[in-house]
Amino acid sequence: MSGEASNMQRYTFGPVPSRRLGRSLGVDLVPFKTCSYDCLYCQLGRTTNKTTERRAWVPTDAVLAELDRLLPAIANACDYVTLSGSGEPTLHSDAGRIIAHVKQHTDIPVAVLTNGSLLDRPELRDELAGADLVVPSLDAGGAAMFRAVNRPAEEVAFETMLDGLVQFADDFDGRLWLEVFLLAGYNALPDEVRAIADAAGRIAPARVQLNTVCRPPAEEYARGVTREALDELAGLFEPAAEVAAEFHGPSAEGAFAPGREDILNMLRRRPCSLADIAAATGKHRNEVIKYIEQLQADGEVASSRSGNVTYYAATQ
Ligand code: SF4
Question: Which CATH class is domain 12-255?
């Protein structure tokens, strides 16, 4: 296993390079865009299945079998096994069992990227206790901005969500990093950032990382802020937040990397490998994989192999 995405991987992707996590094997526990939020900035597009129901959205045994096959091969080529992917991973009712399984079978640390919306549930807090690193999101300091930016499922109340996060942070023995995603004209207004900083103070994570729109968001009007603005806003946190956004290309003016239609147009002109698409769009391959998966599921893209490389082409 060279670290390339394999076409034998159904519930995992990578290992892929990750800015924060080094080389990360992604574990994808929900169908595409199954999430309790519908964030304006979501790089995967709008949520198609907004839910707070925890269940085995993908078959647990198949996930574990895939991990058993992959983990020995990536032991020296991977910094984290990360629950992340196509939606909110904690919606999977066996998230805790999957974390425990990875911990039993490898020394690779386990990370969980979560929107934190379900952490008011004691059983989920217990399940995530087995992870080494948990990275929840917090994009608002109050209910109105929470609804505007994250567009949560009706039953997710801001205060309950925040109390759950605080409770989890109090109990958790691993590392906790808080991610804050800032949008121009929304939660990046200084008073809004101060409110987020107050809430972050209750959570007291090891790090607060500020991010902003660098890739195609769910809504075209979701705009990022400049690097300079993020640097300034970072100082409103105590201690100061880190700026984690990837600024590649002319991000400040909103010239986002192409999305689904652009990839499809590219594939109408000539067959491309994942690496070709990633190079042309500036996207991480795991993100490209998500678009390709959806295009394939919709019958708009088909794959073929030449040597060791898989090529994708539009079907019409
Ligand atoms: S950014 Fe994360 S939490 Fe928000 S809609 Fe997308 S997958 Fe869900």
Answer: alpha beta
Judged against a pLDDT cut of 90, whether residue 135 lies above it is answered with: yes
Q: Which long-range contacts (CB under 8 A, 24 or more apart) does 275-281 make?
A: 277/312, 281/257
The residue with greater pLDDT, 1 or 315, is 315
The CA 42 to ligand 1 mean position distance, Å, reads: 5
pLDDT of 257 > 60? The answer is: no
Which CATH number is 257-316 given? 1.10.10.10
| Nearest-atom index, ligand 1, CA of 117 | 3
The confidence score (pLDDT) of residue 12 equals: 87
- Ligand 1 pocket test target in 51, 115, 151, 286 with most atoms within 8 Å of CB: 115
Under 8 Å CB-to-CB from 32, ≥6 apart: which residues? 44, 48, 86, 87, 290, 293, 294, 297
pLDDT for the residue numbered 285: 61
CA of 39 to the centre of ligand 1 (A): 5
Where do the domains of the chain lie? 12-255, 257-316
